[in-house]
Design brief:
The structure is a single chain. By secondary structure, the protein is mainly α. The chain has one domain (about 20-84). It is built from two helices and two strands. It has a two-stranded antiparallel sheet with strand order 1-2. Helix 1 (about 1-20) runs antiparallel to helix 2.
């Protein structure tokens, strides 16, 4: 149940981001390290929002994986101690 509420909250925030972004149709110039691009502000906001969500998910997944490995090691130690 907690996961569903969290998913709906994240989905609501993404929808709000898309709605706000769709209202910004001005052209902006983005300077990269080696290039330059002109795009609509809404497109730039969507790209940056997507990159932020992806980076957050990667960070969360790496933390979760590290905790799962640690849990496995601790369970093995517990089994070993219980068998003695």
């Amino acid at each position: 149940m907690k996961g569903l509420i969290l998913f709906l909250l994240v989905l609501l925030l993404l929808i709000i981001g898309v709605v706000v972004g769709s209202q910004n149709d001005q052209m902006v110039t983005v300077n990269y390290l080696v290039a330059q691009a002109s795009m609509r502000l809404s497109t730039l906001m969507a790209i940056v929002l997507s990159m932020g969500v992806a980076l957050g998910l990667l960070t969360m997944a790496s933390s979760w994986l590290a905790l799962r490995v640690k849990l496995g090691v601790l369970r093995q130690k517990l089994k070993k101690l219980q068998s003695e």
